[in-house]
Design goal:
Length: 369
């Protein structure tokens, strides 16, 4: 096992550090910014169904559901196709409406999650075309979908999903950009610009990993907290959900992720000097809005840890702690901004003596409902 961990103390840490590589592996042969090439080999016969879809329904559970939420924003922005993101367990039991022209994307690291598999079969029985986005080759969801794309992240052993999440984002974003290009819903110039940015993501993730030592120091200070709030807007809203999920899964600290603006409809009541609030506040179209949200938290004495874009001059004056990540297009930012959150949860869990690779009560793959 020590050999399999490749010198890392835990599989989770190894898998976090593998991400520059796993994201590149996921892009290999599929994306080439200099030629404008973008092609997912597993999506051929039904590619037109996706391009001409009236609606896309994404079904998933857990972390995979969070990647679906990011993908919702990407598909809607660039493809102008309405997207619905569904918890597989809810979708399958409520007699969902599936029309001709709807396509389903089932997202699952293991490809064996019982609810996702059942939801997908239900949609299929109602005539939907199913695309599978799975990591495990030959898994049930991969085999039973019409077409799909593998995430090629390599085996993920840690129960808390890390590299599978970023690989899912990579595949789903490639799918969206391919569709947008085919539909002509983005300009050639914007498309090429995004491919160039996309190709730089592995190097930017690598830069985030260099923040490890700083994050260890922050983890020391917050390891005994009993609650955490994670807030983000736009593309970083699902990242807030994912950051909170990572922390609660492995450190057993209660954590909630919320859209930052929604805070005033509830979570703001929880804020006092004991409450660490992680803002994912990178420079994007909702930057000014999130700055006001930080002020609202500061006014109530919350302790702010902010993930910001390199060179941000404003937020460091307001937050107790800042973690700077490289800038990129906002649609690609979740691939970058989630990395420090993975590290934060990992270190806090280790400092609390938790079994990070096999947290209590959790399974890597939930094959019963
Ligand atoms: C379990 C795992 C999570 C995972 C979820 C969905 O809860 O612990 O890490 O995100 O299942 O799994 P899937 O294999 O379908 O992505």
């Amino acid at each position: 096992e020590a050999i399999e961990k490749g010198g890392y103390e835990h599989f989770m840490l190894k898998e976090i550090f593998e991400q520059p590589r796993s994201i590149s592996d996921c892009m290999r042969g599929r994306l080439n910014a200099s030629t404008g090439h973008l092609m997912l080999g597993g999506i051929r016969e039904y590619a037109n169904k996706l391009v001409n879809a009236d609606r896309i329904i994404m079904i998933a559970c857990g972390t995979s559901w969070h990647s679906a939420l990011v993908a919702e924003y990407v598909f809607e922005e660039f493809c102008r196709i309405p997207v619905e993101v569904e918890y597989a367990s809810e979708f399958r039991y409520r007699n969902p409406v599936i029309n001709e022209g709807d396509v389903v994307i089932a997202i699952s690291q293991s490809g064996e999650t019982a609810d996702t598999l059942a939801a997908m079969e239900l949609a299929k029985s109602k005539g939907a075309i199913i695309f599978g986005v799975c990591n495990v080759v030959g898994s049930s969801i991969a085999r039973n979908s019409h077409e799909g794309a593998y995430t090629h992240a390599g085996p993920e052993i840690g129960v808390a999903s890390t590299k599978a999440f970023t690989a899912q984002l990579t595949v789903l974003t490639m799918m969206a950009l391919r569709v947008a290009h085919r539909k002509g819903s983005i300009t050639e110039r914007k498309y090429r610009e995004l491919l160039v940015e996309f190709e730089q993501i592995p190097a930017k993730v690598e830069k985030c990993l260099e923040l490890n030592e700083d994050i260890i120091k922050i983890s020391e200070l917050f390891k005994d907290a009993t609650n955490f709030l994670y807030l983000g807007r736009g593309y970083n809203f699902p990242v807030a959900l994912e950051g909170a999920l990572k922390l609660k899964e492995i450190s057993y600290i209660h954590a909630e992720g919320y859209p930052a603006a929604e805070m005033k409809h509830g979570p703001i009541a929880l804020i006092d000097e004991e409450m660490p609030v992680v803002f994912i506040a990178t420079r994007d179209s909702s930057y000014d809005k999130i700055v006001s949200n930080i002020q609202e938290v500061k006014a109530r004495k919350g302790k702010v840890i902010a993930i910001v874009t390199e060179g941000d001059a404003l937020i460091p004056k307001m937050a107790e702690f800042v973690i700077e990540v490289p800038s990129t297009n906002e649609a690609l930012m979740p691939l970058v901004s989630v990395i420090p959150l993975q590290l934060l949860s990992y270190h806090i869990a280790v400092m609390r003596g938790c079994n990070v690779d096999q947290p209590r009560n959790l399974a890597k793959s939930v094959t019963v409902e």
